[in-house]
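chain below, 187 aa
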Amino acid sequence: MGMRSSTTKRAEGGTGVRAIVESATGARPKTLTRTLLAVTAAAVAGSAATTTASGWYRRLRKPAWQPPPQAFGLVWTPLYGLIALGAARVLDRRQGAARQAFTAQLTANLVLNAGWTLAFFRARSPRLALAEISALNASNAVLIKQAWDTDRTAGAALLPYGAWTLFATALNTAIVRLNSGDGRSPA
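prediction:
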């Protein structure tokens, strides 16, 4: 009868899931899946190390402007999605050594991202966490610049992450200052 199956039409017309994902995100589904897995690993590591219910954390003096603990998950979930999206767009637009360099930068960034939580909550050291988040901010600046230079949409996707870690740095700094010299904040 001359009728084609809907599967054939999707394959020919580019309306399959892959085409839809790529059209919506500007990233290949395989690359996006890989970056989502990488940021999920960082998120799980950070989440597993977070202990806001501990007596140590509850006793720390915190600034009045600190968001409630539940706000952090609400902020980090879309930030991780944006990191995965921005990174996937960059990776799909780079080849060879440039792609490998960005992959290494992203990996180091995600290690630093998860490392902050370990320094702050597991080591119970806001001072160490402050040094660590300073390294994360430097890494974010490099990551955002590389992304921006490759694809402005990717760079824009990473800007909220950079902004949030700067806010977290201010919060970490305030906690260090509020708890210096009273035995609440280990070196």
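Helices lie at 6-13, 17-25, 29-49, 55-59, 69-93, 96-122, 126-150, 152-179. The chain has one domain: 28-179.
thats it, cya
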